[in-house]
Amino acid sequence: MLNWITNTISSLSYLGIGLLMFLENLFPPIPSELIMPLAGFTVARGQMQFIPAIAAGVLGTVIGALPWYYAGKILGTERLQQLADKYGKWISISSKDITKADRWFDRHGSKAVFFCRLVPGVRTLISLPAGISGMHFHSLGSQKEYAAV
């Protein structure tokens, strides 16, 4: 995996960083914890500029969150519950689990998105309940919510 990430960044430069960060948000096994440090190493060697490398990573990550966000927004709670009841046995999830998660997300969604975006693997999946709840893309919550944190 390390060689593939290194080769992608070397051959595609900023586009490679953006592409890898996009894919990392779709498929959790691709670790951004390798992508961005390698991008930083490339910057330190003088082969890339700092600001465009960061911008490519951020842009790739934001675009990568969109498919999961819109899947949640389009499918909605009821459809996901139906899918869980039909196929959830393969991943040990039921419609009851989705209902409990939905209630929890209604109470803690803004904080959950903020903190879960920092956790590898979870950062991919947190976009789904954000979409289901119709969370605004540009807001992570009010100042009042974070005062309690």
TrEMBL record:
Its main location: membrane. The keyword Cell membrane applies. Residues 30-138 form the VTT domain. The chain crosses the membrane at residues 12-30, 50-71. It is a multi-pass membrane protein. Keywords: Cell membrane, Membrane, Transmembrane, Transmembrane helix. It is found in: Cell membrane. GO terms for cellular component: plasma membrane. InterPro entries: DedA_domain (IPR051311), VTT_dom (IPR032816). Belongs to the DedA family. This is VTT domain-containing protein. It comes from Gloeocapsopsis dulcis AAB1 = 1H9.
